[in-house]
Amino acid sequence: MSQAALQGLALESEGRAEAGRRPHLDADRELPLLNEMTRTQYARGVVRLTLFVLLVLLILPIQWVLMRLNFGAKVLPFRIHRLFCRIFGIKVHVTGAIEPGGGVLIASNHVSWIDILTISSVGPISFIAKSEVNTWPGFGLLARLQQTIYVARDRRSKTAEQRDEIKERLGQGDTIVLFPEGTSSDGNRVLTFKSALMSAAEGTIPDGKGGEKPIRVQPMSVAYTKLYGLPMNRAYRPFYAWYGDMDLVPHLWDMARLGPFECEITIHPSMTVADVGSRKALAAKCEALVSESLTKALVGRG
Question: pTM of the entire structure?
Answer without folding.
Answer: 0.84
